[in-house]
Amino acid sequence: MSNLELAEERNFPISMKIATVVGARPQFIKCGPVSKQLRQAAMEVLIHTGQHYDSNMSELFFRDLEIPEPDYNLGVGSGTHGEQSGEMLKQIERVLLKEKPDYVLVFGDTNSTLAGALAAAKLCIPVAHVEAGLRSFNRRMPEEINRVVTDHLSALLFCPTETSVSNLAREGITEGVRLVGDVMYDALLLYSRRAEERSRILNHLRLEPKSYFLATVHRAENTDDPNRLAAIVKAFEMISDISTIVWPVHPRTRKVLESYGLQRNRGSFSILDPISYLDMLCLEKQARGILTDSGGVQKEAYWFQVPCITLRDESEWVETVQSGWNTLVGTDPDSIFGAAIKPPPSDAYLNHLFGDGHSAAKIVRALLEN
Questions:
Q1: Which domains does the chain have, with CATH numbers?
Q2: How would residue 172 be classed by pLDDT, with cut points 50, 70 and 90?
Q3: Which is nearest to 98 in space by CA: 21, 12, 23, 19?
Q4: How far apart are CA 155 and CA 121, in angstroms?
Q5: Which residues of 171-189 are buried (b: 16+ CB within 10 A; e: fewer)?
Q6: How far apart are CA 7 and CA 15, in angstroms?
Q7: Residue range 63-70: average pLDDT?
């Protein structure tokens, strides 16, 4: 049954209006499957904060994921956490006052997430949080602050795993909690075949499957600490002596590398501009291993059954670590190198840990029913 038929059968208001707030690449990915389902049964107002404003960080994702053009592009851009969040809050509030949505839908844990939730809560508009309940238990991470505050402001909390449901319960949050699975798994199932058909990234980079490591680094705990970033670059150089490393670099990370004097190409260690989502899926699937500090990439590595080496001291995605497919190494070069040369895990891969690939439909159904 389509969402439109569901709405008609249960007399849900077709004119229900949902304001969706996005601003960064992981949110575009999560928004894709949800928006596709949502627009069959409700009015969606898409608000792009402009947190990621580079064409490779934003426009390519909207094209690849076939997300409609944003109704509002706030063009906030970069800045300190306070400057960026404050400007987003001010501009999102103006849009919400004009549009008067029934719900504000936010994704993940970025400054766009927090600003959308705060603006809605202060206007007494219910907040729905996709990817609720994640915890690293590291309050030094801006993302941890964003996700905790957003969860405590939300009326509907869409959890990807049993662990996230338990995390919320420990904080006294049980009302409005829904275990729906992970919408990024929906996206991977939806777009990975398209990626295989359309992407030419392996040919362009002259790469053979399973012959290279893929790297991503963007979290402030790594990029804002010159010692941690230098250690990561050293580890990449060590690994590049035995295998090619492909590193698409976030624009902000590139600036930091330049300021620290760390940007260089050495042997088989290559720094690239950001790439499209479809190209990223292809590189992930065919990699020998993945080096990352990204939460989303940790999961995608798991779903593709590619060993992941996480350049952090903790992970919100504990299931991937417990499975043996994800190894936490911090930024010690020897630990990173040791994990890179370790054989792939022999542990059984469990494909049900993150839902059944129908999370978006469950989210839309819950929104329509409330």
A1: 3-182+355-369 (3.40.50.2000), 193-341 (3.40.50.2000)
A2: very high
A3: 19
A4: 10
A5: eebeebbbbbbbbbbbbbe
A6: 10
A7: 84
* Per-residue CA distances from 90 to 113, 122, 136, 318, 336 (Å): 14, 11, 29, 35, 42
Query: pLDDT tens digits, residue range 187-199?
Result: 999 999 899 999 9
Q: Establish whether 218 is a catalytic residue.
A: yes
Per-residue pLDDT tens over the stretch 150-159: 999 999 999 9
Segment 220-245 mean pLDDT: 93
CA 127 to the chain's CA centroid: 19
What is the token pair recorded at 222? Answer: 């790594």
- What DSSP designation does 57 have? T
d(CA 235, CA 62): 34
Residue 269 has pLDDT above 80, yes or no: no
Q: What is the pLDDT of residues 317-361, one digit of tens each?
A: 999 999 889 999 999 999 999 999 998 887 667 778 899 999 999
Environment class of residue 200 by beta-carbon count within 10 Å: exposed (0-12), middle (13-18) or buried (19+)?
exposed
| Rounded to 5°, angle at Cα 37 from 34 and 38 | 80
C-alpha 276/C-alpha 165 separation (Å) is 32
Catalytic hit among 48, 52, 129, 218:
218
Helices 25-38 and 277-286 sit at what angle, rounded to 10 degrees?
110
* Identity of residue 175: E
The distance between the two most distant Cα atoms of the chain, rounded to a whole number of Å, is 63
Residues 150 and 138 sit within 8 Å (Cβ to Cβ): no
pLDDT tops 60 at residue 9: no
